[in-house]
Design a protein that fits this description.
single chain; 461 residues; mainly alpha; 3-stranded antiparallel beta sheet; 14 helices
């Protein structure tokens, strides 16, 4: 019997689910909401490529086709989804979630395969005989199926995809089928190698530099803000989990040593340098919430890798390194602490729940007191964000209203598949009924399962 993918059936089911909890999104238990969102992603939003799309247009008829729409950042946010589901698997050991992760990893591999350039990942791949929106490059699979893709990956693409692989390798990879685990390890190595091979300026399919792929981490012995944190995160992930290619592993190791040991590109002494990469997240030159979330994520991944490496090898973490890279997180959080960004708040609170990280990143008592107050303030708001997020993720037409106060995520635009990168002061004023355009809920899953992971790591199940 064919599955019913109609918008009407999903909307009816969600109304019934909401009614069980009094008809209010806020009253739906957080884990119930998380399980529902994951089910929706698997059933409705996972394309034939294996990746989840930002937006899928559901049919009116039960037997109608779904339209997996073009998106510039499909690979980017699937990297974040791999991280989200890896946190979940670390907490629950759920077999369906592990199988879902394996499917996404095969999709990310396919997104490298179509470009024909090892380690270069396509932003979006669509199974289509003709070009669709920005997916203009053609690829024919071994079975004769025709795809079109957009390559041109950006800094954020590599940041989120490599970060997803890093969390996967730390928490989940050991339980994946052997072939998928090896595939993921090779693909992570290829991403890091491609960045080093291209001298931190990603080159596209035609050999020309990509539009937003300049990750040059150091210039004239000066760390380059933002680039430094992302380049380090990608290279560190590839270094900690080397693939089978020994030549590439050696290149990545040398790059890792240069970025961290020969020149800590993510930190400059404030007493001697005017340009201080660690303060980039609080800089007015950073382009809004999206870039601040990216730079915080990159620093978080670097810190998380260090903590896990130390824990697994029974050695103390490098306190100087934790302090230096941790300053990126601290400065960024000083700037966005009032923005109601649940994911960023949880990454910061998560690493600081590790006593060694807390003491290393914040060595002075006055700084410790300041951040304790900060976390107490943002903690309640963070959980409230997740409570308020809607169960129904169908797009509703409307208009953006700029406000002077940070908005709850539930009041921001519903057609954004990753709310933690949206402007905190933008409110969405709905002007029409729900359409059949279903938006992905990776944002909720990432924040919720990261929160659960760090909570249970600190306190136990």
């Amino acid at each position: 019997m064919a599955q019913d993918f109609s918008a009407a059936s999903l909307k009816a089911y969600e109304r019934k689910l909401l009614a069980r909890y009094g008809g209010a999104d806020r009253e739906v238990p957080l884990e119930v909401k998380a399980e529902h969102f994951e089910w929706v992603l698997r059933k409705y939003m996972q394309a034939p490529t294996g990746l989840v799309h930002h937006t899928v247009v559901l049919p009116n008829a039960a037997d109608g086709p779904r339209n997996f729409t073009f998106g510039d950042d499909i690979a980017t946010w699937n990297g974040a989804l791999v991280a989200a589901l890896s946190y979940k698997y670390a907490v629950t050991k759920d077999a369906e979630t592990l199988a879902f992760i394996a499917d996404i990893l095969r999709g990310l591999h396919f997104s490298q395969q179509v470009t024909g350039r090892d380690g270069l990942i396509a932003r979006c791949v669509l199974k289509s005989d003709v070009p669709v929106a920005g997916a203009k490059r053609r690829y024919v699979g071994a079975d004769g199926a025709v795809y079109h893709f957009r390559s041109d990956p950006a800094k954020g693409t590599y940041n989120q995809v490599a970060g997803g692989y890093a969390v996967l390798m730390l928490l989940t990879a050991q339980d994946l089928p052997a072939d998928v685990r090896q595939l993921a390890c090779r693909d992570l190595q290829a991403l890091a190698w491609r960045l080093v091979e291209d001298d931190y300026r990603l080159k596209d399919v035609d050999g020309d530099p990509t539009s937003y792929g300049d990750l040059t981490p150091v210039f004239a012995a000066q760390g380059v803000p933002f680039n430094a944190q992302v380049a380090y995160a990608v290279v560190a992930a590839g270094h900690h989990f080397p693939g089978e290619d020994l030549v590439r592993a050696k290149m990545i190791r040398r790059a890792f040593e240069r970025l961290r040991n020969k020149h800590h590109v993510y930190y400059e002494d404030p007493r001697t340098h005017l340009i201080r990469p660690q303060e980039v997240g609080a800089s007015p030159f950073v382009k809004g919430t999206n870039d601040r979330a990216h730079v915080l994520t990159a620093a978080y991944i670097g810190v998380f890798l260090e903590l896990e490496y130390a824990r697994r090898n029974g050695v103390p973490p490098d306190r100087e390194f934790l302090y230096q890279l941790g300053q990126t997180m601290d400065w960024t959080m000083r700037h966005i602490e009032n923005d109601r960004n649940a994911l960023c708040n949880l990454m910061w609170a998560g690493v600081l729940s590790d006593p060694q990280a807390f003491a290393a990143i914040l060595p002075h008592p006055n700084e410790q007191a300041r951040v304790r107050r900060q976390i107490e303030t943002i903690g309640g708001e963070t959980v409230e964000q997740l409570r308020r997020l809607w169960l129904d993720r169908f797009y509703r037409p409307g208009q953006k209203i700029e406000t002077r106060e940070p908005q709850w995520a539930a009041d921001r635009k519903r057609h954004d598949s990753y709310l933690w990168k949206s402007g905190p002061f933008d409110r969405w004023e709905v002007t029409g009924p729900a359409t059949n355009d279903l938006c992905a809920s990776m944002d909720y899953l990432h924040a919720y399962w990261l929160m659960r992971y760090w909570h249970e790591r600190r306190l136990g199940p």
